[in-house]
């Protein structure tokens, strides 16, 4: 079969990329096939042998640690619920990095950059990653650390990734116990006895499933092996940034820290334009006022302006959002009042305890 005939055959993109990375095709054929390939998102999977048939001849390719699917996430920065100033800053930083190949070569720096996206759940961290990939036209590698056996396999995964890619490690604070490995304290026998059998079995299972260490992860990000491949972004996400080891979050490993927090009115305006096609509406003033007094995540905001039926108009959708904001405000006030009452009771109890029992009598401090 000729080169043109092979290139003209329809092959699924995810299988096609395996062919390119696995076989030693002529470079002309490789380039020709790659022209029609969309970006890929790659997720961790077990080792497998990829097979294909050409005219009845079965070919077996080398093992790979990544499984490939077409990346079709529609998110862009234009549709993100984010403050315009922060959005512009992030876009400028990403575009600058993608065009800085000669600068990194001249300064002898590794062509990579680390990002830490942090904030409460539902603030759009995963959507942000998709928007980054679509902006730069990069492939996405979704790395699940708990599926990696040890540091050696982690390094192998890095080597197998391609240039112009984003390596994603989501929820880094709970993927593995990487936060306290350098400061673990020895537990007393009494503390060990308090552990239930269920907790012991859980710890044993975690230890047997993955042996990736903090040191191995740091080497993956910032040491000699991190230079393999080039032009790569490494993006971490977390809901609790304070849990992370400072060695992991320092500049050079996580170069840019981006906080994705509660929704503000400027971010909501983006959703309003996307969902309702409205620049102005009488209810927007009330929404702006409520958003200044209420903490609500973008995921909850986005759910309400979305039409639930063909009969839903802008007024109905925005009224639904106003109701959600009012309920969130009432819940926050109730929680705050409960906390104040609990704090007052604790202070009163502490004060009575410091005075000691009086038994209804006032005892003079001195007696003549």
TrEMBL record:
GO terms for MF: ATP binding; ATP hydrolysis activity
SMART domains reported in the protein's UniProt record: AAA (SM00382)
Superkingdom in the source lineage: Eukaryota
Entry similarity comment: Belongs to the AAA ATPase family. BCS1 subfamily.
UniProt entry tagged with the keyword Nucleotide-binding: yes
Keywords in alphabetical order: ATP-binding, Nucleotide-binding
Stretches the record annotates as Disordered: 181-206, 329-368
Span of domain AAA+ ATPase: 111-263
InterPro entries: AAA+_ATPase (IPR003593), At3g28540-like_C (IPR058017), ATPase_AAA_core (IPR003959), ATPase_AAA_CS (IPR003960), Mitochondrial_chaperone_BCS1 (IPR050747), P-loop_NTPase (IPR027417)
Bias (Basic and acidic residues) ranges: 186-206
Nuclease recorded as keyword: no
Full protein name: AAA+ ATPase domain-containing protein
């Amino acid at each position: 079969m000729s080169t043109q005939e092979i290139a003209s055959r329809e092959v699924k993109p995810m299988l096609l990329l395996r062919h390119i990375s696995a076989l030693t095709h002529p470079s002309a054929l490789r380039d020709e096939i790659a022209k029609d390939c969309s970006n890929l998102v790659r997720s961790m999977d077990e080792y497998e042998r990829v097979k294909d048939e050409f005219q009845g001849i079965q070919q077996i390719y080398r093992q790979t640690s990544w499984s490939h699917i077409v990346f079709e996430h529609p998110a862009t920065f234009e549709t993100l619920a984010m403050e315009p100033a922060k959005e512009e800053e992030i876009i400028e930083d990403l575009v600058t990095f993608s065009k800085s190949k000669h600068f990194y070569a001249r300064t002898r720096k590794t062509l990579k950059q680390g990002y830490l996206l942090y904030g409460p759940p539902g603030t759009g961290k995963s959507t942000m990653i998709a928007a980054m990939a679509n902006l730069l036209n990069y492939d996405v590698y979704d790395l699940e650390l708990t599926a990696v056996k040890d540091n050696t396999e982690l390094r192998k995964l890095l080597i197998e990734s391609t240039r112009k890619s984003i390596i994603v490690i989501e929820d880094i604070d709970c993927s593995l116990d990487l936060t306290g490995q350098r400061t673990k304290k020895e537990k007393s026998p009494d503390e060990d006895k308090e552990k239930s059998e269920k907790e012991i079995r859980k710890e044993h299972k975690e230890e047997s499933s993955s042996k990736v260490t903090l040191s191995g992860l740091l080497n993956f990000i910032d040491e000699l092996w991190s230079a393999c491949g080039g032009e790569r972004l490494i993006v971490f996400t977390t809901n609790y940034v304070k849990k992370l080891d400072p060695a992991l979050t320092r500049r050079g490993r996580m170069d840019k820290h981006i906080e994705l927090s509660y929704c503000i009115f400027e971010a909501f305006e983006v959703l309003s334009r996307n969902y309702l096609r409205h620049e102005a509406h009488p209810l927007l003033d009330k929404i702006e006022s409520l958003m200044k007094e209420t903490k609500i995540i973008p995921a909850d905001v986005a759910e309400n302006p979305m039409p639930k039926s063909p009969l839903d108009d802008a007024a109905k959708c925005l009224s639904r959002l106003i109701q959600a904001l009012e309920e969130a405000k009432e819940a926050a006030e109730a929680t705050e009042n409960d906390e104040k009452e609990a704090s007052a009771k604790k202070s009163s109890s502490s004060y009575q305890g410091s005075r000691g029992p009086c038994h209804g009598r006032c005892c003079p401090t001195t007696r003549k």
